Amino acid sequence: MSEKITLSNVHKTFGTKKVLRGVNLSVDEGQSLVVIGGSGSGKSVMLKSILGLLHPEQGSIKIDGTETVGLARNQRQEIDAQMGMLFQNGALFDSLPVWRNVAFQAIQNQGFSEADARDQAVDSLALVGLGPELLDLYPASLSGGMHKRVGLARAIACKPKIIFFDEPTTGLDPIMTDVINHLIRDCVQELGATTLTITHDMTSVRAIADKTALLYKGEIIWHGNAEELAASDDPFLLQFVNGLAEGPIEVEGQQISAAGEGQ
Amino acid sequence: MSFSPASEAAITVFGLTNKRPPIGQTGKHLTAFATIGRFFIGFFAQVGQLSLFIAETGKAIVRGPFYFRMIGQQIIRIGYLSLPVVALTSFFTGGALAIQIYYGGNQFNSETIVSTIVALGITRELGPVFGGLMLAGRVSAAIAAEIGTMRVTEQIDALTTLSTDPFKYLIAPRVIAATLCMPVLALVADIIGVFGGFVVSTQSFGFNAAIYVQSTVNFLSFDDISSGLIKALMFGFIIATMGCYNGYYSKGGAQGVGRATTNAVVTASILILAANYLMTSLLFSA
Known about the structure:
By secondary structure, chain A is of the alpha/beta class.
């Protein structure tokens, strides 16, 4: 299997804060990779660097073998066209009804007529288990779970070859979490897409990951498949998977809390 | 569209330099210099960032694709929906101006003087400037709040991942619409402002309506009106650009959006007044 996404020695700094400190990672074609890590470990920055929303100072990010670091936005349109993204809070456009959100790319970039785009929106919403009655609603009137599902429908509407999921189940109840995890799995299988998910939800990891990587302080410190994840005795991984406060992983803000308690 | 990696790096360097150093023994002695230095570095970083933003906006306006639907929507929101605010402002301004001139001018031969000065004052200065300031409050704030909210809720990132340039889809339509609408609004302000002066003069001071209109028409030249409209064109550009710029770079959640909105109104208002002075100097010194 060929590598669809390859990150080599990626560094990203904000002011004096080094967020990514040499990330090395690869995702094979058709594979579902889940990157786990605590808050502030650099997961979102890594994802935004791959999407070209942030520019790393150092390192290489290749998509389908094409180097993307240093490319201007208009130079990476072909690459962008084969990618879909589900944002943490959906990031649906408030000013547009659901169907225009879902069919956004078809209308703006693929020259679909309004009628064809609306049909495409109906099909995409059906894939995530939503009916046509939602088409003319605005995002403000949707629940959190529906937001995610409409966001997912938008991400898969143009049948992308690579899909990114940013914390897809954060803020959802356990039942909706399971629904979203199954939808992700089903959609990915249906489309045959390569996916990269970032999350700290271990339920999602078990449901959707072919491979898992642990990001800590801007570096990938462990990676492996589901069996290796279950069998690993890596202390960092064990602490994260079991959700333990004690262990080698420094908890962000712990010193501040301790100081606050002392006052 | 985001800035090039080189530009972004330059901004990051400015941001880094702009950080307050820890105050030690040496730091205390240098505090005054450091404060002045930080102010100027921060100022020039902002100017640089704004210049890059305007350059990107210019490119987006000149190059396609053009989102005509968005431009149409913005013309309605910025132009059409601002008509009542601008009309009321200019009507009362024209009326107040007439009262000031009447009582300040010893009421001698005031029929000609009031009509002439109201017409000149409104068309050359007050119509475009007050209209611009009202739009800075109404439109610049709304643009900054909308784009700022889109920024903090990742909607602008979503646009980019959907292969759509935010400068072409969000910024250019607003700047085009405001720049086109502002001269039209200024023209409306001119007409209603002069009418406000007319109403007050004829109803309160008993001026003859026909003489008032005749002296207004006789004295007013095309240059008086066109100079105001040229200014309005620039004010429209300033209003939309400040709203978009502050919204686009807002950060820090709801508080950041609030700050962006305030900054948009303040900077747009100051720039309108500064641009008015400069353009008046240029247009009337020749």
